[in-house]
Amino acid sequence: FGEWTDDLSDAVDHGGFGSVGALARGHGAAARMARAYRQALYEIARSLTKGKSALVISHSGVVEASAMACLPDLNGAELGRGVGHCEGVRLAFEGDAFVSATILRL
How many Å apart are CA 22 and CA 69, to the nearest integer? Predict the structure, then answer.
């Protein structure tokens, strides 16, 4: 997917979803990486038959960047801090598009 960027690490650590979203919507290396994550999740979602789901396990940073790339209109500031251990994001996919994200926190 590309080389991990320091600006993405800083965004996750200090700004949560809002900062990661700004990078994901940009034009730099972090944005390219986020788009690659989105494409991978899109392909997984498209491969599922109706009523099925997939579990993708990853690291902090990838989770936030993926969610913000899949749903660029999300208000990252409202979503708050990045995910912690054993936390994540549930993405809903309908038809040919991601339609919602639910933050799963302990």
Answer: 10
Give the C-alpha separation, 74 to 17, whole Å.
9
Nearest to 1 by CA among 69, 99, 88: 69
Output DSSP code: residue 83: P
At 16-53, the pLDDT tens digits run 999 999 998 988 888 998 999 999 999 999 999 988 99
Global pTM exceeds 0.85: yes
Closest CA to 20 of 73, 86, 67: 67
Q: Which two tokens stand for residue 42?
A: 């899109």
CA dihedral (101, 84, 63, 57) positive or negative:
negative
